Amino acid sequence: MSRPSLTTACAAMLRRDLTLAWRRRGDIAMPVLYALIVTMLFPFALGPEDTLLQRIAGGVVLVTVLLAMLLALDAMFASDIEDGSLEQLVLAPQPLALMLGMKILAHWLTIALPLIVISPLMAALLHLPAPVIPVLLLALLLATPLLSLLGAVLVALTVGTRRSGMLLALMLLPLCVPAVIFAAGAVAAAQQGLPWLAPISWLGAALVLAVVLAPLACAAALRIALDS
Amino acid sequence: MANWIPLWLHRLSSPPTFYRFAGTLQPWAMTLALLLGAIALYGGLVLAPADYQQGDAYRIIFIHVPSAWMSMFIYAVMGVASFIALVWRIKLAEVVAMESAPIGAAFTFITLVTGSLWGKPMWGTWWTWDARLTSELVLLFLFLGVIGLYRAFEDRRQGARAAAFLAIIGIINVPIVHFSVNWWNTLHQGSTVNVFGQSKMSWDMLWPLLTMTLATKFYYAASLFRRARTDLLALEGGKDWVRQIAQDEDAR
């Protein structure tokens, strides 16, 4: 039997995960709805003053997107564990890190991308000035893949455990501090009319590092968690 | 030939040998810790002069600073032990890494509490989002994450390996967090004690601090030995050497 080429395998993996996500379209809408509802709660809790909402808008949108992604992280490998396809993936001749990278990409496309699409609406609900919105989008475009990659490593570590939801939050919090600081820093700088390129560059650097290392770490973590 | 060092280390990594070794050293380490701790407290609280600016409030550093050093030192030990556990699959390294985590979390917690007690009269607030405080808080969460992940697995060795992996990710993360929060906000003073070069602290204040640092090191060793012994007995429950110990205990 001839082995399919690496590109074919990657494309098949990506197509499979996207098809599975598309068959359950309702699940894709859930994080988006969650983020919108959380954003709506802030004006109720803090009062509808424009100046206050404007000042917190960037941070609220970022944290809300982070929480929505955290809630969806748990499901990244859940169905594959249940039907045993994850074990098959570990045994497959293709490099596991690359296959997991494809899974992370599919997860980002189905969870984070809808959140990024909806984020201008969330920002507008909180009266974030229009010129700042492109910076917010750029920060989210760099920060969300970073979170997906870091989260994937942690999810891989917890696949063998019983209850992982709260544990995942506890483990992800220390890892996502730099991403939140730099993303929120860029938005805040843009809002005050200061140069915002430096924090964005830091985010980019962190993302490059994570793209290279996280799939490898994810593969190593998965091998530890499945090996019993 | 200096062959005996690796040989001795190799032998030490066997659970029964370590059990005996730790059992012999543990009371000594505990005695030294209590003795040095008492001397350091007397030196720090009674003998050392009051600070010209902060008065007596500065005396909390005799607890705060050694605890802060220990929190980082224990994280480093845990990271190294985790690395050894993952690479060479030595059971004892897993035990050391996992039993260090609660002690490290305790020291981190003490650092945060004493720091906030000092911050109230000095900075006028219990807590501020300063770089060092935030890093220390993140360190506490890293410790708690490692403990939580270890406990979440049914199989202890598998849990130890997963948690060891998390500890290594944390080691890469600590400097990143530290520099990013530094860039973000800072209020805490820089270091006063320098390993290389002159310390900016008078000797009457410095010696209790250094004695307390030694005391905390010994306390860590004693506590780790005790925890590791218990853990080894539980892990190796079915083995002959544990049965022997149980029979000896029974006979007494």
Could you write a compact summary of the structure shown?
Chain A is an all-alpha fold and 228 residues long. Chain A is built from nine helices and no strands.
Word description of this protein:
The complex is a heterodimer of chains A (228) and B (252). With 228 residues, chain A is mainly alpha-helical. Chain A has 9 helices and no strands. Chain A has one domain (6-226). In chain A, 83% of the residues lie in helices and 0% in strands. In chain A, helix 3 (50-73) runs parallel beside helix 7 (133-158). Chain B contains 8 helices and no strands. Chain B has helices at residues 4-12, 15-47, 61-88, 91-123, 131-152, 156-184, 203-235, 240-251. In chain B, helix 3 (61-88) crosses helix 6 (156-184). Chain B starts with a helix and ends with a helix. The model of chain B has no long low-confidence stretch (mean pLDDT 85).
- The percent of residues in helical segments of chain B reads over 70%
Report the principal-axis shape of chain A: elongated
**Count of alpha and pi helical runs of chain B:** 8
Element-by-element helix/strand order of chain A: HHHHHHHHH
H-E order of chain B: HHHHHHHH
User: With helices defined by DSSP (H or I, 4 residues minimum), what is the helix count of chain A?
Assistant: 9
As a whole number of angstroms, the C-alpha radius of gyration of chain B is 20 Å
Rg of chain A over CA atoms, rounded to whole Å, is 19 Å
Major pleated sheet of chain A? none
State mean pLDDT of chain A (0 to 100 scale).
89
Low-confidence stretches of chain B: none
User: N- to C-terminal separation of chain A?
Assistant: 30 Å
Give the amount of beta strand of chain B, in percent. under 5%
If interface size is counted as residues with C-beta under 8 Å from the partner's C-beta, which chains form the largest one? A-B, 29 and 28 residues
Q: Span between N and C termini of chain B?
A: 43 Å
Count the E strands of chain A.
0
SS content category of chain A:
mainly alpha
Residue stretches of chain A low in confidence (pLDDT < 50, at least 5 long) are none
What is the mean pLDDT of chain B? 85
Largest β sheet strand count, sense and barrel closure of chain B = none
Please state the oligomeric state of the protein chains shown. heterodimer
